[in-house]
C-alpha cells in the first residue's frame, strides 16, 4: 500500500521509496499539477536572438493557453495572450516569424500592435462608446534570463533571479558564447509518457553505462568518474569533464585539442526547462518537457550555435543528428516502457538508489525533483492541500 503524503515527505534519502505510481498517471493529480505547478511556472519561450528585429515573434502554447512573444518597433519585448478581444479568435497560428505590420485577426480584421494594443476595428466608429484603449490584449508576465525569453501566466510570480539564484552565472560559465547563439533547428516530439517520467530519466547517471549503446557512447566521451549531480532548491546541474583521450565524437573527428569547455553540461530550471551542451558539440541544446495530459508530453528539442547555420562544424552537425536519431529515440523508448510499467498491478513504489557520497550513479536529483513536485501538491509537511 502506498505511503501517505506525510510519511513520504518524512523519508530519509538513503532509504527512501519513490513516489507512488499513481503520481505518473492519475488524471486528478495531473490536474493539480497543472494548476499548482505549471500555471505559475516560468516557461522558456525562445532565445532573445530569435526576437532580433521589430515584429519578430514566437508563439508558445501550454495546455490550452497560447502566448505571443514579440519585439515592437522601439525594441521593447512584449508577451500577451494569443487571442482577439472581439470574439476570441486565435490571432497567430505560426510558431515564429516576422509581423511587418499590425497583427490582423483573420475573422473580423481587428488589428493590434506589437505591444497588444488595439489599433483599429472595422465599423467601430459607428459603435456607441467604443474606445480602442478598452480592448488591449491582456499582457503576460515576461522576463529575459540568461539569454532566454520566458513567460509566466501568473502576474505575481517571483522573479527568476529570486527563484534560481546562481543559475544564470552557472549557465554563462559553462556556455560563454550564450549571447551570440542562434537557433539552428527545433523539433517537437509527442511522447506517450508523463512529464515526470521524462525528467526522471534525464537527471540521473545510473543508467548511463547500463541501458543502451548510445548511452554508453555518451559515457565514453566524458570522464565519467567526474560526473557530478548537484541540486540548488529550484534548479540543478549535472555534467562531467571531457574525455581528454577522445579524437572523435558522434562519428565525426574532433579535429582540435580537447578544451575544458568540451565537457558535458546540463542545467534544469524548475519545473521543466533543461539546457545542455554535449561533449565537443559546440552548441547548446534545449530539452523542454511540455505536458499534454497525465500520460502524454511534448519533448521540444532546440539546437543553438554561435556559428552560422551553413557553417556549422562537422562535429556540431553530427551531434545534432546523433541526438535526433540515436540517443533521443533510445531515451524515448525508456520513457515509453517505464510509463507502461507504472500501470502494472505488480508495482507501486520502488527504491531510490541514493548512496551516502551522492556519487555519479546516485539518484538524489530524482528525489529532489520529486520533493519539489510533492511540495507543490501537498505543502511542506506533506499534508493534503
Automatic annotation (TrEMBL):
| Residue stretches making up the Rieske domain | 42-135
Question: What are the protein's UniProt keywords?
Answer: 2Fe-2S, Iron, Iron-sulfur, Metal-binding, Oxidoreductase
Pfam families noted in UniProt: Rieske, Ring_hydroxyl_A
* Cofactor field: Fe cation
Which molecular-function annotations from GO does this UniProt entry contain?
2 iron, 2 sulfur cluster binding; iron ion binding; oxidoreductase activity
* Record's protein name: Rieske (2Fe-2S) protein
Which source organism? Halomonas beimenensis
Amino acid at each position: 500500500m502506498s505511503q501517505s503524503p506525510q510519511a513520504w515527505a518524512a523519508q530519509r534519502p538513503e532509504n527512501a521509496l519513490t513516489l507512488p505510481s499513481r503520481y505518473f498517471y492519475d488524471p486528478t493529480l495531473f490536474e493539480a499539477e497543472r494548476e499548482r505547478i505549471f500555471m505559475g511556472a516560468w516557461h522558456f519561450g525562445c532565445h532573445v536572438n530569435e526576437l532580433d528585429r521589430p515584429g519578430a515573434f514566437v508563439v508558445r502554447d501550454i495546455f490550452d493557453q497560447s502566448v505571443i512573444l514579440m519585439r515592437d518597433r522601439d525594441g521593447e519585448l512584449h508577451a500577451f495572450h494569443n487571442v482577439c478581444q472581439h470574439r476570441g479568435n486565435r490571432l497567430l497560428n505560426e510558431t515564429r516569424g516576422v509581423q511587418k505590420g499590425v497583427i490582423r485577426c483573420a475573422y473580423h480584421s481587428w488589428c493590434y500592435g506589437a505591444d497588444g494594443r488595439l489599433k483599429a476595428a472595422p465599423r467601430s466608429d459607428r459603435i456607441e462608446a467604443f474606445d480602442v484603449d478598452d480592448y488591449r490584449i491582456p499582457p503576460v508576465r515576461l522576463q529575459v534570463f540568461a539569454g532566454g525569453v520566458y513567460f509566466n501566466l501568473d502576474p505575481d510570480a517571483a522573479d527568476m533571479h529570486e527563484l534560481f539564484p546562481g543559475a544564470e552565472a552557472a549557465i554563462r560559465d559553462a556556455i560563454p558564447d550564450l549571447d551570440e547563439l542562434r537557433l539552428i533547428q527545433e523539433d517537437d516530439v509527442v511522447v506517450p509518457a508523463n512529464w515526470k517520467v521524462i525528467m526522471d530519466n534525464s537527471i540521473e547517471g545510473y543508467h548511463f553505462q547500463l541501458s543502451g549503446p548510445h548511452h554508453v557512447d555518451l559515457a565514453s566521451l566524458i570522464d565519467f568518474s567526474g560526473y557530478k549531480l548537484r541540486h540548488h532548491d529550484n534548479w540543478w546541474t549535472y555534467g562531467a569533464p571531457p574525455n581528454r583521450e577522445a579524437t572523435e565524437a558522434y562519428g565525426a573527428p574532433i579535429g582540435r585539442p580537447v578544451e575544458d569547455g568540451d565537457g558535458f553540461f546540463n542545467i534544469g530550471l524548475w519545473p521543466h526547462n533543461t539546457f545542455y551542451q554535449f561533449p565537443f558539440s559546440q552548441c547548446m541544446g534545449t530539452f523542454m518537457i511540455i505536458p499534454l495530459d497525465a500520460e502524454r508530453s511534448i519533448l521540444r528539442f532546440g539546437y543553438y550555435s554561435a556559428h552560422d547555420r551553413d557553417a556549422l562544424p562537422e562535429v556540431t552537425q553530427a551531434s545534432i543528428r546523433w541526438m535526433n536519431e540515436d540517443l533521443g529515440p533510445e531515451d524515448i523508448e525508456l520513457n515509453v516502457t517505464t510509463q507502461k510499467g507504472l500501470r502494472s498491478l505488480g508495482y507501486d513504489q520502488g527504491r531510490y538508489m541514493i548512496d551516502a557520497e551522492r556519487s555519479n550513479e546516485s539518484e538524489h536529483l530524482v528525489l529532489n525533483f520529486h520533493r519539489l513536485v510533492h511540495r507543490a501538491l501537498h505543502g511542506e509537511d506533506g499534508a493534503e492541500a
